[in-house]
Design goal:
Keywords: Membrane, Transmembrane, Transmembrane helix. Helices cover 61% and strands 2% of the residues. With 255 residues, it is mainly alpha-helical.
Length: 255
């Protein structure tokens, strides 16, 4: 009996939980998608070309091979983009305030589950959109944005997803920080208690999808930047969740 229990305990230590398997699957999917986008770079160009409005080059711009613009300067769209850009960080600040409030309680009044979920949300926001997307990838991978490349009237050569050959020096295209933040927002759905989860799912999903689509239409990012940035946040969230997961956690989470 003792040996059987020891073997069972050893097996649990060797194999990840279901949350761990989800993280591994998502992590592998991210790399597969990167390989696909890197191997077939024309996908990015074609996707951005659908939003590019070609114009006749003016005599003063005779040296340009392509002239035109992306439809990104409409006041309504710019306002909507600003709201979506700030929303994840407003939500993050609100969650931080809730977490601080949690730790003002002790003993029987301390809500350990709520504190755990808030820490998962905040840690994944800082690691995914914050550290990996904005401070590591965008700062060092050097991929020019579509609007900056020769394909769309810019001055830089196009480089495929994941390439380090780009000449962009700062705030570059790979990956999209806003798409990562939008992906993070969608992850919060699983931490919202019912019945609020059902009511908020569709609005959050709409924001999570519309945010990267607007960046694509603005010529600010390629399709690969958006897909990989969006999925990056979900991978990081799944990793943080799996790290804190235990066999005794409740089936339903709440914030």
């Amino acid at each position: 009996m003792t040996a059987s229990l020891a073997d069972k305990s050893s097996a649990q230590a060797r194999f990840p939980s279901s949350a761990g398997y989800i993280f591994i699957a998502l992590f592998c999917l991210w790399w597969v998608l990167l390989l696909i986008f890197h191997s077939f770079p024309q996908v990015d160009i074609v996707a951005s070309w659908h939003f590019f409005l070609v114009e006749t080059c003016k005599p003063s711009n005779a040296a340009a091979q392509i002239c035109g613009h992306f439809p990104s300067r409409q006041p309504f769209l710019e306002t909507l983009r600003t709201i979506f850009f700030r929303l994840p960080y407003v939500v993050g600040a609100f969650q931080l305030a809730l977490l601080i409030a949690c730790y003002r309680h002790h003993g029987g009044t301390f809500n350990a589950l709520r504190a755990r979920n808030l820490k998962i949300a905040l840690a994944s926001l800082l690691l995914g959109p914050g550290l990996i997307a904005n401070l590591i990838l965008k700062a060092h991978w050097g991929r020019p944005r579509p609007i900056e490349t020769l394909n769309f009237g810019g001055s830089f050569d196009f480089v495929q997803a994941g390439s380090l050959a780009g000449k962009c020096m700062s705030n570059c295209s790979f990956v999209s920080g806003e798409a990562a933040s939008a992906g993070w927002l969608l992850c919060l759905v699983m931490l919202i208690p019912q019945p609020a989860r059902t009511g908020l799912f569709l609005p959050i999903l709409a924001i999570s999808i519309l945010t990267p689509l607007m960046r694509l239409s603005f010529g600010a990012h390629y399709l690969s930047d958006l897909v990989l940035g969006w999925l990056l946040a979900i991978v990081v969230f799944a990793g943080v969740y799996a790290f804190t997961d235990s066999s005794h956690r409740p089936k339903n989470s709440e914030i």
